[in-house]
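Before a colleague's protein record goes any further, I have to sign it off. Thanks in advance; the entry in question is below:
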Amino acid sequence: MDLLVITWNYPPRRGGIEGLIASLCAELSKTHAVHVITSHARVSGFNEKNVFRAPLPGLVAFSVYAIWRGAALLARDPRVRIVFGGSALVTPLILILSRIFGRQAIVQVHGLDVIYRNLIYQLLCVRWLKFCERIVANSNNTAALAESKGVATERLTVIPPGVRSDRFSISTDVVATKQSWNIEDKKIILFVGRLAKRKGIKEFIENSLLEIVREIPNTVFLIVGDNPTESLTHREDMVGEIKATVSKTELVSHVRLLGCLSDDEVIKLYHASDVVVLPALEASNDVEGFAIVALEAAAAGKPVVATRVGGIPDAIEDGKSGVLVEPGAYTCFSKVITSLLKDREFGLLKGQYGRCRVSKEFSWQHIIARYQDVFDAVTQ
């Protein structure tokens, strides 16, 4: 069958949702004809085959274009049996097109797109999720959030993101990577992700890193990511806040803000690191939907230490592929990371287990089969 995907989140925008939807479309394209309607971008720099972009920026322009282009495509191609939404944001567009043309509506939800505190958004987007034939949630926590908004359990399917583990298992020259960043003699703690407040980086520096550095003075904390300037929901200047926090401590030489890097550069840093951290905060108005970074780190054979919030527990098998710490337990965070930095074999064992787990449970071949089951269920 053919699929029509409508999504605001798509490369060249960077982020977890963008990466997931792009990878999902690429994998589905191996066995299906996939048409993507997405938002305006000044420069794409990505595979644009069968990708249709709104000619003007903004949500209104995108919505009008998506309805027009989607209607034209569905009218001429009866083989398109599923209209798939990349997030709850596009639910009204998915339902309008699917109902007019008699197709099946499926929407992927990620967490924040379900609970975002805006009355108009909740009324226009989230309340209509329950009318879709199927909702695909990226974690058990996200599925619970969707249920709380009225989505029936039988319409919910949990499918986590997939990972191309082969990309992360390729051997890299760790010595050369460390030399290029001038960190040859360092123990490396790594964070990768957009610097939204919920990521908890500032709080981790304030409450854990100083203790770690006092115990292991040659530790450096590498932060890969930047402010979420293209996000519709996050507008904080976390880079500025992190710099201000670091300047008030004795950690100036122990924290490096690297900004956004290419995928290849990030993979090299995964391999050079000793431990990857996800010190996410527990918040009522925001949520960590999954933790794709935890899977990437595991695919590179690295242990992960993270807080037990949102969908993170779905990505980390506690005590085996990494360690989960309760929110706010920064002393515990410090002790676990210190242990991993001191005992390399301890970290290697967790990394090896995580790599095997990712290969078995989160390969795209396995994940796409689960999506296919959903497609088959709604079209039979």
The mean pLDDT is 92.
